[in-house]
Each structure stands twice: as structure tokens, then as C-alpha cells.
Amino acid sequence: MRVSRCVRACVRLVLLVVLTPAALLAPPPPRLSAAAAGEDGAVPAVPAAGRAWPVGVRPRVLRGWEPPATAYGRGHRGVDLAAAPGTPVVAVAAGRVSFAGRVAGRGVVSVELARTGGPPLRTTYEPVRASVAEGEAVTAGEVVGTVEPAGSHCPTPCVHWGLLRGDAYLDPLALLPPWLLRSGPSRLLPVLRVPVPG
Length: 198
Description:
CATH superfamily of the domain at 61-179: Glucose Permease (Domain IIA)
CATH class of the domain at 61-179: Mainly Beta
Order of helices and strands: HEEEEEEEEEEEH
CATH topology of the domain at 61-179: Glucose Permease (Domain IIA)
Helix content: 10-25%
Mean pLDDT: 77
């Protein structure tokens, strides 16, 4: 009986000595944002439905998406894109304007994206002087407003671009297909061993 207890105690000690360093050295599991995760803890999928950047061709990202650890925690619930005041702001994908007005003194435009599941994805742009009205249908690349000269929270003029599914904040860059995220111009490769038409 004593030998059995001693063996079990030794096995526990060996496991503790072997597993503790492995647990301490292992990278932490990815932390899902309570603000981004659903009730089951899963982050909702984002289809690459975008067809245009909100501003410019390939704007500089001043600050990326930093999901908060809790619903009311610190973080950055969108992406800040460099944009001068007066720059046109376009809908990244087709949808319907769900809000166009002022929130806390800043102009905000929100577009509910078509065919993105339920609840549908919703993009937000601020500070933007709206040129569309609530309920209006918009196409990808259609101007929804212009960047306002004041109201930006960036050190330089910018547009804050957000993405939500219901109340869950998501990374808006996930809306864009890989070809839109690539930097630099497209390059054509030479075609070899093809006869020149005569």
C-alpha cells in the first residue's frame, strides 16, 4: 500500500517537473476579443466582399485593428487610414446606408453590406460629411461622403473605418481580397515562345 502511494507521488512529481516548464514556455493561445467573439466564443467569418478601399487606391494604415480583451476594454475597434480633409470616401462593397448623421459631434456613415449573411456586416466611416441618406442603396466604389476637416482622433487627418456583425467588432481589412491589399503596381510578365502576330 505504501509503495503504491509512493509511486503515485513520484509520478505526480515527475509530471509536475516535466509539464510545468513546457506550459510556461508554450505560446499563449490566441485571445479572442469578447467584443469580437460570439456567444459560443467563435469569431464570426468575414467574406472578402470589399471591392475598393474607403479612401484612395492604397491608403497608408496609420493604426490597425486591435481587438479589446473585453467588450468595454481598451483597444482599437477599426482601422485608421490616412486621408486629407475633403477626400472622397467610398463604400467598400454594395449595400444600403443604415446611418448617415452625427455622433458625438462627428459625421458618421454606416453601410449594411448586401449578401454577407445574418446579421449582415456593417461598415462605418468617420469623420465623414455624408453625401448619402439613410436607406439609400450604394454600389462598391460609390462616394458616400468626404473626410471632414475636424473630428479625427489621429495625429494626422484620417478616416476611421470600422466593421461590425451585430454588436461584434471585426477587422475591416478582412473585407478586402488579397489583390487589393498588395502594395505596389501590378506588373505584366513577358510571354515567351509565342509568335508575334504578323
